Fold each of these.
Amino acid sequence: MLEVNPFIYSHPLAPEDIIDRDEETETLMQNALGGHYVRLFAPRKYGKTSLLRRVLRIGEQTEGLIPILVDLYRVSSVADVAIRFERAYSRQLKGKLRNAIEDFMQKTGMGLSLGAFGISAKLQLGAQIDPLPALHALLDLPLRLEEGGGYRALIALDEFQDVDKVPGLDGLIRSHIQFQGEVASYVFAGSEPGMMRQLFERKDRPLYGSAVPVRLGRLTDSDIAAYVSERFVTTGRSAGEAIGPLVAAARGHPQRAMLLAHRLWAGVAEGERATLEHWRQAAAQAMAELEPEFDAQWRGFDTSEQKTMRALIAADGSPYRAAGLRRFELTKDMVRRALPRLLDTGEIERSGGQHTIVDPLFADWIAALNDGQPRLTER
Ligand SMILES: Nc1ncnc2c1ncn2[C@@H]1O[C@H](COP(=O)(O)OP(=O)(O)OP(=O)(O)O)[C@@H](O)[C@H]1O
Ligand SMILES: [Mg+2]
């Protein structure tokens, strides 16, 4: 029988598979029930979507909230946004409420439908539909849900930073949700700290100051170790002495921890106990798998960003140190310009005066570059 690897690293997790995040779940629930908006932010792959799904599920099961998750990843037009909202409702509404909303949509005459032939299909076929009034109607759906007998909707807008690609969209969203205090709670999740700050912390932006900030941090080593060990055991293996180096390499990064655990598990047969050799092979495989991704990411940086990252690795988080500047032919000015950009895009983070690269394996990759071993896979 084919065994299923218990470590998932390529898509959001089922609520019961999530490590920790209990406090964040509680905070999100409390705010949702209190009718407050939350902005959830974290670097890429820290588990935002997994957490949103967990909160939506708990909200539905324990509080009767109507859960709606809208993914705004890379939207770039009003039509895109209308399609994403329509499909989100289509996927998530059930039963009587679904029928009530479908009836309402039909009556608008705007081409909206929860069925297969909704506005998405019509727009793709080139129908003459103005997506703006349709989007207005979709943004008002929480009011219709309530009329349809629903309690309160919990609406999570994932990858919210991408609303900035559509001019005026944050204002449009605000103009609707501000009248929905009694019928809907909103969570805005995003991964680019700079963009999320622009949207919520600038006085001239429509959503300024409107949402409670919740940040997802790294997982603790002990939580990761316990989870990995247990899953090895329940699948008839032992993580053995590999657990220490695995946890150290992951540095609390949720997705990197799962990726490393996945590779390690795959190399250990049932009934076996992982050794350091298993670990070394797993780590090498993970790096080989990530090489194209890191290479593309690296090419996306300009020279001063590349050098700043290298200096930061070489000098333990202090890119201004003289030795680093000399070694990489970097000036303080270049660092001063590069750092905010790297912080804004979530490549690095600051804690206690130190700068850290968010992705521990990317940091290892850059360290190898500094050591004169640019091609990890060929070592
Ligand atoms: N709390 C957690 N426990 C275990 N694994 C986690 C956790 N959070 C994230 N992960 C790992 O990270 C992966 C990505 O999770 P998820 O898609 O929820 O993150 P995300 O922040 O939404 O990512 P993206 O930035 O790509 O949208 C999961 O497949 C899982 O391997
Ligand atoms: Mg996500």
Amino acid sequence: MVNNHRSQLQSFWDRLVEKELKREKEDPRKRVHTDLLWREIKRSIQKKSNLTILDAGAGFGRFSIPLAEAGHKVVHLDISPKMLEAACKIAQSREITTIEFMQGSIDDLSRFETSSFDIVLCLDSPLSFCYNTYETALSELIRVTKSNLILCVMNRSGVIAEGGVNFDLQHFGKLKTVLEVYNAGTLVVTEELRSLQPTLFPSWHAFRPDEIKELLERKGCRVERISAPGTLARFVDPELLKQLINDKEAYESYLGFEEQYDSDVYVLGIGAVGAGGLLITAAKCDRRQK
Ligand SMILES: C[S@@+](CC[C@H](N)C(=O)[O-])C[C@H]1O[C@@H](n2cnc3c(N)ncnc32)[C@H](O)[C@@H]1O
């Protein structure tokens, strides 16, 4: 990845720490998305203890910190110094000692030995932010896991529906970037685009479900599950969702149904608003790296 893109990622995510923390606390749709991801992570962990886990692009520690708190040995890697700072502060305040913080980019994991982690997580789209190095990043994530890999990437049809069409019509009066994204998946955010909307993510690649599946298989993995988490919740009234979350039993039952709905082949392709739109669990089944 060129250094310019790395520094764009750093400063972009440095600025988002507070907003991400707030969104996690206040947005019921984000809460549903988080809880769906937890169900998937817990399925991989089963009842095992003392696992070694790499959380690659771990942000403010949404998953890394509770996993370390549960006794697993966690490496929390992120490109953004401010995200690392926020996560470190939270971990210290909870006196967690089984977590190690490292700054770096997921497309260079050369500091880690092959097969050094029981589970590798890369959630809410760090892979998509490696817009021109995602193949390298994916090979690295696969190389360092012994077996399990849980990924969340941007969902191509989802991002088009979420803001793409509005962006084009507002700024160009016709479809423009959406056509590129639909065909190639990549949006290279030029200075011109950024001047139209300063809050745009740095350049990214959004995947189709079959594209990420094929890529993982080509790199020697078996895809075990794939879903578009949070799709159903995006259509539910947020106030009703808040009430549902407070009813533990009804909420658990809702999450069970949402998992089923979001994995339906007719639903794959959308995903939550403003969060990783495709969730994939894969197992490394041979040692080939291509
Ligand atoms: C939406 S946040 C998700 C954080 C965390 N994985 C979660 O699910 O809560 C995306 C995170 O990926 C990090 N990130 C983006 N590109 C990265 C890269 N190339 N290498 C490492 N971290 C990256 C950002 O700094 C940010 O903290």
